[in-house]
Amino acid sequence: MLSAILLVIPLAAGAQSYCSSDGVAQPVAVLERFINADCEACWSDPKSAKAARGELAVDWVVPGSRGDDAPLASVANRDGLARLQALRRKAPAQSESVRHPAQGKAGQLRVSHGLPFNNYLGTSIELKPGTGGPWTAWLLLVETLPAGIEGSPVERNLVRNTLHQAWNKGKSLSKEEQERFFESRPMSIPDGSTPDRLRVVGWVEDARGRIVAAAESRCVN
Hints:
Layout (H helix, E strand, L loop, with lengths): L1 H6 L10 E3 L8 E8 L3 H4 L11 E8 L16 H8 L8 E7 L6 E6 L6 E9 L6 E11 L10 E12 L7 H5 L1 E8 L9 E8 L5 E6 L1 E3 L1
Parallel strand pairs: 2-3
Antiparallel strand pairs: 1-5, 1-12, 2-4, 5-6, 6-9, 7-8, 7-10, 10-11
């Protein structure tokens, strides 16, 4: 089972001390791959969509009809259903992919996180300048798994937890709010996750659901 495989992957050497998108090129597109937890073969499908250069890929495993008995139930996340609803799509019977170009029209997006503490990770997402909108921010806690895990033909950024936040709902903003949009939250680390492989990625959408800025963190010692 996938959960057993994840537990034996070697940990990265040494704890990371600082993780943010500072100095990391903003993705030119976001590739979302959705897998039904019932479909074990979908994880190793050689036809899995691959991220092009400069793209950010994220992987949602959504609950299947078999519930806890599904082959991929241990890494299934109901947040994937909320994401599909936002995209006005139904859960796939097996798998499907959606690619979104990043428009780059909303400003500079920054994401960051701290060190694990009591099964939580402090995370943040920030957009500067804090103008325009309304925007919807998505911040994902992902576990980055190299190609080859359970036969996966691609590296995967498995979604472990999510935060989505509406920014500027048509209200008048204070001067401070006009300078940036910012959200900071602790995210719980699900059982079975390996903290040293966790990081955050995020994007901001406009009212039509188009991604206008995206970012991914990188950890340094």
